[in-house]
Structure formats: C-alpha cells, structure tokens
# Entry
Amino acid sequence: MDTAAQSPPAGGAEVGQIVIAALMFLLVFLPLAVFAIRERAGRPTALGRLAAWAAARVELPRWAALPMAVAFLSGVSALVGVYWDVPIHMELGRDEGPLANPSHYPIYFGLMGIFASGVLSAALAKGKLPARTFAIGPHWRAPMGAIAMMATGAIGIAGFPLDDVWHRLFGQDVTEWGPTHVLMIGGGVGVVIGLQLLLAEARQVGASGPVARLLGPVLAGAWMMGASAFLMEFDLGVPQFPMLAQVVLVGLIGTWTLLYGRLAWGPGGTLIVVAVLLVSRAAFSVLPLADDLHVAVPLPYVAEAVVIEVVALVTRRRGYGFAVAAGAGAGTVGLLGEWALSQWLMPDPWPAAHLGTFLLFGAAAAVAGALIGTWQHQRVEDVAGIGHGTARGDSGPRGFAARHGAGLVGALGAVALMAAVVVPADPPAGFTADFRLTDAPVGQPISNPHGGGDPRWVHATVTINRADLTEDPIWLNGFAWQGGDFYSTPLEKTGAGEYRTTEPLPVFGQWKSGIRLHAANRLLALAPIYAPEDPAADAEAIPAVSGVREFMSEIDFLQRERKSDTPAALWTAGYLVVGVLFAAMWALFAWLYAAAAGGRPTTPRRRKAGASANP
# Structure
C-alpha cells in the first residue's frame, strides 16, 4: 500500500467544510439573536420563562441561573472534545479536515455555547442589577460577568477560523499547544473566570442560598479542571515543552485555585476543588477509553491541597501574608508530594536529580498563583459586598496599590516564569546518535492500526557522542506515534553514552519513530529513526537504517507538517496577533473585576416599560 499517497492535506480546510462550519454557527446564533431582541423588548420568550423557573429553583437572578447552567454544560462539552481530540492526533496524526474528526464537534458547539451563555446573561439583565454594569446600549446594561463570558467565548470561537488561516500560512500543527489551539482552549476554559464574577454580582443583589455558597469552591474546581487541560500532553506522555513548564503550571494552577476555594468555603474548601477535578477527569476519560485511545492521567494536586489546609489552620492571617505562606508551603512541601505522585502517575516522572531546580521554579510559581487567587477572591468579596456595607471602595487607605499591587506582582511573575521555561532550547551543532538497528521478531499491540505498510519492528542500540548531555537526563526515551498508537519507553543504559531500547519500535506505514532526549533545563532534542514520505507536507522519508543521525530540534520532527519556507517575519506577525488576543482577554478580565469591585454605581438604573421584574 502506498502510504505516502494517502497522506491527508497539510494546509487549511476545504472551502466546503468552512461553509458548513459557518452554517452551524448561524444555526446557533440566529435563534439566539431573535431571543435577545424579543427579551430586550419585554416580550415573553421560552428561554425567559426557563430562566425564571431556574432562578426560582436555585435562588439566583434570572441573568445568572440559566446562563451559568448553559456555560457549565458548554464548557464540559468543549473539554470532553479536547480530551478526546489530543490522543486522536497522537495516535492517528492529522485530520482529513476539521469536520472529519468527531472530537471537533463537541469542542465547536461547546465554544459557541460559552459565548451564547454570555449573550443569554446580557439579554436577561433586567430588574435588579449590580451597582457596576457594562453599557451595551443607551438602555441596556449588563453584568460585568456576562461581558467576561461573551469575551472568552468570542476568543475561543475566533480560534477556529484563525486555526485554518494558521494552517494555510504555516502548515498543520496537531499539537495541543499550537498558538491558535491555545486561543481555543484558553477561551473555552476562561469562561470560569467570568462565572466567578457573575456569581459575585448575583450575591450582591441578594443571592445567598446554599447553591450560591457551594458554587464558590465548585467554580474554583472548574477553573482547576479547565486550566489543567494545558497539562494534557504531559499527562499523556508526549510533552513538547520542557518539564519545568509542567512544574510551573502545577504550582501556579494548584495554588491559585486551591487557595481561592479555601477562602471561598473555609475548612475543607481545597478538597471540594480537588474532587471537582478528579470527578471531571474521570468523566473525560469515557470517550477515549471507548475509542481505545490513551487516557490522560493528571497529577491530583492533593499534596498542595493538604499543605494549604494545614497553613490555613495554623495561621489566622487571611490576606496576602497568608497567600505567601500558603504558596511557599504548597510550592515546596506540596510539590514534593506531587513529585512522589509523579513517580506513580506520570509517563515521564519528575527525576530526583533535578528536584532542586523544580522546587525553586515551582515555589515561585506557587507564590505567584497564591497572590493571583487571593486578589481574585478579594475582588469577588468586594463585588458581593457592594450594597451590604462591606465593600472597601477605591479611595482612602486602601488605594490602587494596596488593592491591586500584589495581584499584579503575581500576574507578572506568572508571565515571567512561563516565558523563562516554555521555550525549548535547540540541540548543539554536531550532536549525533549512532544507531544499530536489529529487527524484532514480535512487535507491540496497536490499538487503532492506521496507515498500512508491511509491519517491521526494530530494537535500537544507540551511541550518543555527547555523553555529558545524557548524564541525569530529564527523560531519554524510545518514541513512536501516529501509526495507530503511541509508545514512549525509557532507554536502558549499556555503557558510556550507549543505550538500548527496552521495547521494539515500529518503522513502517505512518509511524514516526526516534529517540527523544530532554536534558536540563530546556534542551529538547530528537534523533529520528523512521518517518514516511509526506508529499502534502513536502517532507521526505527517513528510512530505518543503521548509521549516524544528527539530533534535531524535537519540534521539527514532531511537527513535520510545518512549512519550512514561510518567512520569519510572517511567523513573528502570526505569534504577535495570537499573543495580543490572548493577552487582551486577560487584561479585560482584570479590568472587569476591578471595575465591578469599584463600589460606585455607573449610572442610575432605569427599567424599560414592560421589562420583567423577576430577580
């Protein structure tokens, strides 16, 4: 079978698929626009009646109850798709087109639902509203949380057409952390930030029942659940970024969400946050298991949760002093616990030889996350306290620096840490691997055979000419993917700079195989053993033969579909556009929180004649 002739397209989608996606968008948003027009005109609508029914059941305003439910279901849909999509690409490679992959449908409709939840909240914003609102029109003001939900949904949806443009300009990118993929995932999971603000606004106008109280730590758990999606490639065993990025993200996400949950609920709040993560991840595993795909197993943040609970019990401070103490404890003792769990749970465990560096960066990230989480919780309490005499306001002894300085330090620290650890380092010139390949009589089982070809499995004995780079590696693995399964197994050391694969590697069909090396602290290199010809991506075949191969930048092998002739200026412009959109989303979140917590009404609220007075 000619596997090269069967390679899927490596550029953008066919025009017909773009048209179908646009029609699906209209199918959702034309009825939504009709609803918004009728609702704002004071006419009865089915969704309005459903919102009133939901509001009565959970003791939240109409503009919070139904939109929160829609956002929750939509976010779950999007994440179900993401946790299904990433292992599909790991095992089967790129798609024939965006509509050829079933996992893209729950992602696409989930992102549209997230945007729709913000529109629902804004359309239902009548009757008793928060003191600080966002002006959409002369007689239309919406809660700040609704604007955040619309913004994050819009960013996520924008990722779909931008992804197609990206493929046309730069070639395919089947990795989770592709720039436009980050937009889609970040936009989708960022809705939780809006929901937390919307809940605070609902509390401001009188929501105080058990649902409102429980939603505090539950939403913190939802934010942990969503943000942890960025760790999925580490959870699966095909990370394309240095392990320090995983450590920093675990420290940052863990303390941000756990501290928020503890502050929102009190004793045991961190356990609710962790429970939401673990239950949701079990649910997200159903479709990959049914499809016989790899399942992402997370670090559970349990050790960090226990440390934060202990720090909270032994100290009475609940401001930024508590945040620093909790962050430092979670980033040292807590991450030591996560290191121990990584030996059991992670495909690539955290190596003990590099634990000192990991704890240094992890502790800094944990403190940054604790500062952000505390800032967010304080703003939430300010918003909820407006009208109840507990909001602190912007003036007086608690001015801008006192209210926002620590949160800004945490946010800038998180950005700086990620910038320092995310970008991989290329291998040095002249770094080579001398392979001796021997055919293996028996291969490994393949879950989803894909790509054809005459089966051939080999063991590789490899001599690496820079033994210093293989001393205490972060990982040194035999690797194969996209031929219907995925394999990553540590190499066995047989001599100075000499290693042997412990499991045979496939070198046929659509498989892509090699030796992966991650040396401290950012070097990611790969010595290729086999890859098929890929004419759609203008990639030549790499035959499986003994001999010397030069280590290449790992991303050049894992993303063979990327175009090599795209000008550097165009790459720079592409990353800038995506980066500005992502940064603008976070800046908007911060402004909405600060504005909603300002404590002074924007304008006197006026209710149109005939508008619903339902709370």
In short: Confidence is low (pLDDT under 50) at residues 1-5, 604-615.
